[in-house]
Design brief:
The protein is of the alpha+beta class. It contains 19 helices and eleven strands. Strands 3, 4, 5, 6, 7, 10 and 11 form a seven-stranded mixed beta sheet that branches. The chain has a two-stranded antiparallel ribbon with strand order 1-2. It starts with 7 loop residues before the first helix and ends in a 10-residue tail after the last helix.
Length: 598
């Protein structure tokens, strides 16, 4: 398997040069310590941990997997020790609030660390990764006692957290869930039911696991309006905060999965387990979205991680593998053949991976910055950032994971037959990447959220806010110097607005029109969004070259990759436009009885 190398130079480019993070964080209360020097130091240290501790466990963890027994789940060799080092180094507390034991650094740095750790070993990252959502949920909705008992230990990493939503008969349609919560005399609740697909639901890496569980109270109304949220710890917590007796929640089995074998995906049985209501009764789904939005951005990082990992492997192989001669004459005349990187189709695949990795990194880091502004900015700043996050989060989750899976498959394709063989490690990336398109809401669910709730539901307001941002960028960079990027970006933005109006008009007459167009609409929006960030990166790169600052070859590569993106990837919007405007008839006209086998 190719050795993982943290993309530190590109991370610093995005953080410091494109997004100008120090300039932003000097204006946000509590972020003043996030200087460029501090950020660079954290990135460098995170890279060392990811490369030296986590990456060596990537393939071995996949091969060994997790082991279930009546006593619990054993994680692959080295996982628990890596987690111990992770906690000792203070990584879980990096972007957590100071008042509960965190370091108070911006959310951006937490996302950066997740990318580093996740690219090195996504299965491992999922154990501490879900704790971030639990932290945000308890912080936002927990009472003082819950914060005292659970928040500090989740932040320190002593304990980990999960989210328990899915049941065997309901996935995204949570209104169908059956898990019950019966009130106890002491104010707690007895939680009874079975949850499935619970990532990191049982393991041997931390002394306690805090489950955030959706369940119904006895008098709850039907549907999503009758869902409440509960904290259900694996071990009960004594009044002094120490770990008490085992709670009645047990791992019945771990799923046999296509990928992410190093992470325990559990079936959890709650047999009258003691739980504690968090947030208001029957408002659990609202509170859970604190967790879900965090998880969706985290899942988008998985798409980026697998794109980067596959690109690194494919690039190394393409430079070394000899096969055939260049169509324009030998490039390695002293060898029996040329390295395959000289062939146009291999270049197409590598540049596609590179463009998606670097574009997605800029996009997702920007989303993380928006989260910091929502938390720490003034009221006007926070509202503007929140509106942008509402629009862009479903695009980030769905688009980046879709192109991440495409990129993972391209890595296998570059290797040819060797890519299909396990020892090279490329097929593992494909298997691990596939889940990202499914959990925290499938691509279809994200697309309906984007088009139905965020665009049409806001009367276009949220989309117009992002369009204004693009317009301001295009106006500031008008002229021949940047025309090859700015003009197609502006045209794509204008067409996105036009398409939104057309689909909205059709959906008013037939709601299926929105459902039929949704995924194509989201992917269209994803390509335009990445075009915006590639245009921003190209402008910065051109400015650096003109000023003779830094490594000219790095900036030249940025410009060339941006050009590839605008000429070879952004035009995918043409076919997406055609399919989303094709309407619902060709999807819905066939009667169910005509769907038949044989």
């Amino acid at each position: 398997m190719p050795q993982f190398k943290a993309p530190v130079r590109d991370m610093r480019f995005v953080i410091n040069e494109v997004l100008e993070s120090e300039k932003l964080y000097q204006t946000l209360p509590g972020c003043e310590e996030a200087t460029e020097d501090m950020i660079n130091a954290i990135v460098e240290e995170g890279a060392r941990f990811a490369e030296g501790v986590l990456a060596p466990l990537y393939q071995s963890g996949d091969e060994e997997g997790c082991t279930w027994s009546e006593e619990g789940v054993k994680t692959p060799a080295g996982y628990a020790d890596a987690y111990r080092q992770y906690v000792e180094n203070g990584w879980p507390a990096l972007s957590a609030p100071v008042e509960h034991g965190g370091q108070g650094m911006p959310n951006l740095l937490g996302i950066v660390m997740n990318e580093l750790a996740g690219t090195a070993n996504w299965s491992w990252l999922m154990y501490p990764g879900l704790s971030h959502g639990a932290v945000h949920t308890v912080e936002a909705h927990g009472d003082d006692k819950q914060k005292e008992h659970y928040l500090t230990r989740l932040i320190s990493g002593e304990w980990t957290g999960t989210m328990c939503l899915t049941e065997s008969h309901c996935g995204s349609d949570l209104g169908l869930l059956r898990t019950r919560a019966e009130p106890n005399a002491d104010g707690s609740y007895a939680i009874t039911g079975t949850k499935i697909f619970i990532s990191a639901g049982e393991h041997d890496m931390a002394e306690n696991i805090v489950h955030i569980v959706l369940a119904r109270l006895p008098d709850a109304p039907e549907g999503t309006a009758g869902i409440s949220l509960f904290i259900v710890p694996k071990f009960l917590v004594n009044d002094d905060g120490s770990v008490g007796e085992r709670n009645a929640v047990h791992c019945a089995s771990i799923e046999e999965k296509m990928g992410i074998h190093g992470n325990a995906t559990c079936v959890l049985n709650f047999d009258g387990a003691t739980g504690y209501l968090i947030a208001e009764p029957n408002r659990g789904l609202n509170a859970m979205f604190t967790f879900m939005n965090t998880a969706r951005i985290g899942t988008a990082i998985q798409g980026l991680a697998h794109t980067e990992r596959s690109y690194q492997g494919a690039l190394e192989y393409a430079k070394e593998r000899l096969a055939m001669r260049s169509l324009t004459g030998p490039k390695n005349p002293d060898g029996p053949a040329d390295p395959i990187i000289v062939h146009p189709d291999v270049r197409r695949m590598l540049l596609t991976q590179k463009a998606f990795a670097e574009g997605s990194r800029a996009f997702l880091y920007y989303l993380a910055q928006l989260g910091d502004i929502v938390q720490r900015g003034d009221e006007e700043q926070a509202q503007r950032a929140d509106d942008l996050m509402a629009l862009l989060t479903p695009i980030g989750k769905a688009f980046v994971t879709e192109v991440g899976y495409e990129s993972a498959n391209l890595g296998v394709q570059v290797y040819g037959g060797h890519g299909f063989i396990k020892e090279w490690g490329m097929e593992q990336i494909v298997r691990d990447a596939r889940i990202a398109l499914l959990y925290e809401g499938t691509t279809g669910i994200q697309a309906l959220d984007l088009l139905g709730r965020k665009v049409l539901g806001s009367g276009g307001k949220l989309l117009l806010g992002f369009a204004k941002l693009i317009d301001e960028f295009c106006a500031a960079n008008a002229g021949d110097e940047y025309a090859e990027f700015v003009e197609p970006l502006k045209a794509a933005k204008d067409e996105w607005l036009e398409l939104s109006m057309k689909i909205g008009e059709k959906a008013m007459e037939n709601a299926d029109e929105a459902g039929a167009a949704a995924v194509d609409y989201l992917m269209y929006g994803g390509y335009v969004t990445l075009a915006y960030f590639w245009a921003r990166m190209a402008v910065v790169a051109k400015e650096k070259i003109a000023a003779a600052e830094g490594d000219a070859s790095f900036y030249e590569a940025k410009i060339l990759t941006a050009r590839f993106y605008f000429e070879r990837l952004l035009p995918r919007t043409d076919s997406l436009k055609a399919t989303m405007l094709a309407g619902a008839d060709s999807l819905m006209a066939m009667p169910e009885e005509l769907f038949q086998l044989g």
